[in-house]
Amino acid sequence: MLPIKRIYPASSLLDIFDDFFTVNPFEDISIKCPIHDVIENEKEYVIEAMLAGVKKEDVTVDINERRLSIEAVRKEDKDLKYNRKESFTGTYKRSFILPDDADADNIDATMEDGVLTVKIPKLEEPRSKKKIEIR
Q1: Quick one: what percent of the chain has pLDDT higher than 70?
Q2: Residue 130 belongs to some domain of the structure
Q3: 20 to 30 A from 75, CA-CA: which of 8, 34, 127, 131?
Q4: pLDDT tens digit string along 72-124?
Q5: Which of 92, 102, 12 is nearest to 63 (CA)?
Q6: 74: domain range?
Q7: Could you give the angle at the alpha carbon of 92 between the alpha carbons of 33 and 9, nearest 5°?
Q8: Do 74 and 51 touch, CB atoms closer than 8 A?
Q9: What is the DSSP string of 67-100?
Q10: Cα(57)–Cα(110) distance, rounded to whole angstroms?
């Protein structure tokens, strides 16, 4: 199991209840959440998010302490008349807690052919744990 943990945004719990009443149970709901993969090798962790149709300028990747967040917005073309729409529109948000050996200062992100690739190098030596004295 990979040490990078996925964190669901707080609004997703509300989305579950909303979807219960509005989503057709025979329809594939995975389209609402773009696919992402987390890969680990000897030197780094790699997160790949499939964001077809999302422009690079509509994607943000940020880090706050050990939490890496990805946000993307795919806008719907209001001038088009859809007979069936399976592509996602709206905001995609995912957060990941980075492991202790992740080098948060040297993260690199690229976007090519609709795939966002975030590379997180590993530190030579993992951060040491700090022991808290109990009073």
Answers
A1: 73
A2: no
A3: 8
A4: 988 888 888 888 877 777 888 889 999 989 999 999 999 999 999 999 999 98
A5: 102
A6: 5-78+87-121
A7: 90
A8: yes
A9: EEEEEEEE---TT---SS--S--EEEEEEEEPPT
A10: 12
The pLDDT tens digits of the residues spanning 21-76 come to 555 554 444 445 678 899 999 999 999 999 988 899 999 999 998 899 999 988 88
- Residue 67 to residue 41: CA distance in whole angstroms: 20
3-state secondary structure of 12: helix
Q: Is residue 22 part of a domain?
A: yes
Structure tokens belonging to residue 79: 């001038």
CA quadruple 21, 6, 117, 62: dihedral sign: positive
Give me the number of domains the chain comprises: 1
Q: What is the CATH number of the domain that holds 29?
A: 2.60.40.790
Task: Compute φ and ψ for 19, nearest 5 degrees.
Answer: -65, -30
Task: Give yes or no for residue 1 having a pLDDT over 50.
Answer: no
What span, in angstroms and rounded, lies between the C-alpha atoms of 19 and 93?
Answer: 17
Does 115 fall in a domain?
yes
- End-to-end CA, the chain: 36
